[in-house]
Design brief:
This protein has 349 residues and is mainly β. The chain has helices spanning 65-68, 142-150, 153-157, 179-193, 312-317, 334-338; strands at residues 10-18, 21-26, 30-35, 49-55, 58-63, 81-87, 90-96, 98-106, 110-112, 126-132, 135-140, 205-212, 215-220, 224-229, 243-249, 252-257, 274-280, 283-289, 291-298, 318-324, 327-332. The chain is globular and about 55 Å long. The termini are far apart.
């Protein structure tokens, strides 16, 4: 009993980003979240089914939501993910640019989506608009997304924009990647084929592989909150050179720092690249990098000591090295870097 007080029903939603817009999906429908692997194209499939991949022995189709919504195909990135959705035993993957938090909101904060005069036979992929903080986020109807492919296929195709029934060029969104990048996509696909019992043992840790000035560095995921694209940086006057500026992160101010100086690397242009949102103790800060490549699992026992030829300051902030893609991957001690007093802005303005 609640003493007559109405307790709101809470709905938990997974928030993700697609083409710089934030969407949500019922978290109960999410089975896995994976880095985008190499996809095998399927003949006679709709344009928005961009391929399939082998997930531990089960072939799963992958949908490009950008095409499904009629926006056309966008180039993919190594940092894109696939969210595996399930409804009534049927699974499908959707490609997204970034995955964020799971939030719980009262169901009363979700308003039904307007139909805008569409016929009932048209599959409504947006279930409603969710009010989360100061944002209005589109809530996907995962059941309709799946049933449209496996239950309403012929009827709904006639109502879709012409882009959806156009002939598809297999893997057109993968064009332009270097052989090294394609090798990463391929290796992801190979890894996903493996059954659970052959996956990485429990003592391995997930490492995000990033690039800085053409070199590979590893960052433990236990310090990473999310990854972002560099955009709309606001310079902060009277701050040290390693303070790149501030960025609006969903209403909060995120300070961006450049750690190249700590690593004895020359500073490059700051208008492009990616951002690692790091969370260490009570500190949330954005670390600028050239690119975020993938996540790999490494056992600490596989770390190699840093060669003595490496400068002392590099040695201080690098836990070890690991062979990766014909180079050496330096494992950063991001916690130690970001708690370095030289990186703080202590009332210097």
């Amino acid at each position: 009993m609640t003493g007559g007080v109405n307790v709101p029903t809470i709905k938990h939603l997974l928030i993700f980003t697609l083409n710089n817009h934030r969407f949500a999906v019922d978290s109960l429908s999410v089975r896995e979240i994976l880095w985008l692997p190499e996809l095998t194209p399927v003949e006679e499939s709709p344009q928005y089914i961009v391929g399939v991949f082998n997930l531990r022995g089960k072939i799963l189709p992958v949908m490009d939501l950008s095409i499904r919504f009629g926006h056309g195909q966008k180039p993919y990135h190594l940092t894109d993910s696939i969210i595996i959705l399930e409804s009534e035993g049927i699974f499908i993957g959707i490609i997204v640019n970034g995955v964020h938090d799971v939030v719980g909101i009262p169901e009363s904060d979700i308003e039904p989506a307007l139909t805008y005069g569409k016929k009932d036979i048209y599959p409504h992929f947006i279930e409603g608009e969710a009010k989360i903080g100061g944002e209005i986020i589109m809530l996907l109807n995962h059941k309709t997304i799946i049933s449209a492919e496996f239950g309403l296929w012929n009827a709904e195709l006639e109502t879709l924009p012409i882009e959806h029934s156009a002939l598809r060029t297999p893997h057109s969104a993968f064009e332009g990647f270097s052989p090294e990048d394609m090798a990463i996509f391929h290796q992801r696909a190979i890894s996903l084929m493996q059954p659970y019992e052959s996956l990485a043992p429990a003592n391995q840790i997930p490492i995000s592989v990033v690039s800085l000035n053409g070199e590979y560095y590893g960052v433990s995921l236990d310090t990473v909150k999310e990854f972002l694209e560099t955009r709309d940086i606001m310079p902060v006057p009277c701050t040290p050179p390693h303070i790149v500026g501030d960025m609006n992160l969903r209403g909060d101010i995120l300070t961006l720092v450049d750690i190249r100086g700590v690593l004895n690397l020359p500073v490059k242009g700051r208008d492009k690249g990616k951002i690692i949102v790091a969370h260490i103790n009570d500190l949330i800060v954005g670390v600028t990098v050239d690119d975020v490549l993938e996540v790999i699992n490494i056992s600490p026992s596989e770390f190699r000591p840093v060669p003595a030829a490496v400068s002392d300051i590099n040695h201080e902030y690098i836990k070890g090295e690991f062979p990766y893609n014909n180079k050496m991957l330096s494992i950063l001690d991001l916690k130690k870097i970001l708690t370095n007093k030289e990186l703080f802005v202590d009332e210097e303005a």
